[in-house]
Design brief:
- The complex is a heterotrimer.
- Chain A has 15 helices and no strands.
- By secondary structure, chain A is an all-alpha fold.
- Chain A has one domain.
- In chain A, α8 packs parallel to α14, α10 runs antiparallel to α14 and α14 runs antiparallel to α15.
- The longest helix of chain A is centred in the first third of the chain and has 35 residues.
- The termini of chain A are far apart.
- Helices cover about 40% and strands about 15% of the residues of chain B.
- In chain B, β2 and β3 form a beta hairpin.
- By secondary structure, chain B is an alpha+beta fold.
- Chain B starts with a helix and ends in an 8-residue tail after the last helix.
- Chain C folds into two domains: about 80 residues, Four Helix Bundle (Hemerythrin (Met), subunit A); about 40 residues.
- Chain C has seven helices and no strands.
- In chain C, α5 crosses α6.
- The chains are: A mainly alpha, B alpha+beta, C mainly alpha.
- Chains A and C meet through α6, α7 and α8 of A and α2, α3 and α7 of C.
Chain lengths: ~400, ~190, ~170
Amino acid sequence: MTLVERIDQAPLLLQRWAVSFFPALLQPWVAMLISAAAIIGVFASLFALSTLAERKGLGRIQNRPGPNRVGPFGMLQPLADGIKMLIKEDIVPLRADKVLHFLAPIALIVPSLLVYSVLPIGRNLIAMQCQLGVLLFFAIGASTELSIFMAGWGSHNKYSLLGSIRAIAQMISYELPMVLAAVTVILATSSLDTVNIVEAQAGGFWAWHAFTPWGAIALLTFFICALAESNRAPFDLPEAESELIAGHLTEYSGFKYALFFMAEYLGMMAISGMAITLFLGGWQAPLPILNFIPSWMWFFGKLACFVVLFIWIRGTLPRLRADQLMNLAWKFLLPIALLNIGLAGLWVKSSGWIAWPISVILLGLAIVGLGRLLRGSRPRGGKRIYRYAD
Amino acid sequence: MLGTGILRGLKETARNVIGSFREKDRLPTVMYPEETVKTKENFRTFPFLVYDGDHAMPGLRCVSCRICEKECPPQCIFIIQERDENNKAVKHPRVFDIDFSVCMQCGICAEVCPFDAIKMDNIYELAGEDRFTGLLVDKHRLAKSNHYYHQIKPTEANEVDGRLAEDKRKAEEAAKAKAAAAAAKAAPPPTAAT
Amino acid sequence: MSIPFLIIAAVILASAWAAVSLRNLVHCGLCAALSFLATGTLYLYLNAEFLGLVQLMVYVGAVAVLILFTVLLTRPATEAADAVPTKRPAFWKGALIAITVGGAVASCLAVYAAPKASTAPELSIQEIGRLLTASQQNVLALIIVALLMTTALIGALLLAAPAEEDTKGGGA
């Protein structure tokens, strides 16, 4: 093993070394525990970092410096936030459904962490290699909707309930095009295993799925849906602080709120990780010459780019209206994703340059046409009338 | 084309982010306790008493006329006139207190003062724990030199100085004329009496 | 019978029992979701990974949410005192449905006798895919299902599309 390989596999070697101290009977369990602890540790600290990056980035976007008081350049701000969250009073509304109110954040954070088990973070660095990795990711991701419902309903607050219903409607709507976008990759690699999918994109950035006509569109679709799935701006209707105060988060405080917050960021990073795995070559270096850089650094570098993009978009775009949200999902993303699956099939079958012009023409037509449709769809009934307002 | 607006928006915010490191216009925040904005000349907060010369108490312009006390809308000024040993009023305040916690910084006192003795200051870092020790200010703390006045409000102070000098000159001339007249009256020219 | 199996089975039965006996309909719905989840876990435990994950995705992700939405949209969820029907006609109807469904399941089980093999067959997702698409019979079924779904989708879009008079009339 050369030094480069050693660094590349450092986390795995470290795990093996730690496991070797335990009796053989316990070793698989300890290995599992270490993987879980590593995931929780690494991604929780990334969560802290990304909150800081978000606050500072949004600040710069809005011509202000952002947090800069705690520690050098405000670096310790997440720590201060965490302490504040921990020592805050935990308030449960009097008529709330105590059990659901308590269970909701837990039921949300567990799937959010669970989906990381199928993300290949580096070469051989995956907590659970599973034949059905992609399916597992989406299946577990789907169960977060129920916890949001629990939070909204358990709070006994109409804003919470409205927010959670909005959130669920949004998540179900956007899950469809997201899964369909992922199906193209499954079609092309004929595998649901995340490790296989990453290995299929080896060789350089031109082998990445994002650099095929269907892959580019699927990545775009996937990314838009990722924004909506993680309830991030411009799709943050469920939390719309100006209308719903904070949606299902209204009645949460202290550490439960922190858990919700963490789940949002974890979901954002998990979905970015999935996008990287499916379309951007996972831990593969963009050029074969750059292979000396450890594979996990490539993964985290790409992840950082995604997080920055998320923050950038949040700082730029205004929130969508509810009907625009639904129109975008059902009238634009879904048809595009369906067409895209067909084109991916064409790409696989023809396996040549003939698929390029056909795909570009068809997708271009579809995007322009559907875009017209989307732009033309105003709220029904011409001028808006406020029936109950006056 | 669909999406071009989004790209334009992203470009604009990116310009903000990059610009915030390079241009002052894109990051106008002032880090307050460490750095402060220089106040404008006609920025005003609380009143202070102007004195001429080097010594505060003898140099106070205030003659204890109590116009400001009467005019003050929230009535935050409290004046007791000085009296000499014969219990005769002296043109000097014995007590001149302003309650800064009541003062509403309207500047009427400075406007009505016929002697230009009370002017508006530009201090603002006055937060304290106790309003009676920190914000009930007596004449010793209120007294600030004319030099200080020139520092904080040069234009206004020059104008006031000019006016005061003019008044003084006029008063002196008037006094001179009066003296001359008095002298003339005292010694009327000898004319034909008949 | 292993311990994990017993735990999963207990969770399935308990949550299913709670789903039909609790007074609060939302709690019932959530217990049903828990039951679906535990069933999915059971499939995973029995190495039927594909089935288990599809169970999670379809039942926990979609059907449970559908149930909860239906509950929320049809009656005030907070006043669920008389949520569970206790009148006799309702009881008999329920019993009838239970007997019919149970009979159907039992007859199916009787036709397909329990497999003799005690070890689970190794079935990869590729093989499932091949089974679905290679044999003539399955392809036909798949196409029919796909057509049905497409029809349903188009129907839903038509229902959701603005009515003619609305677009012409310019508002109420």
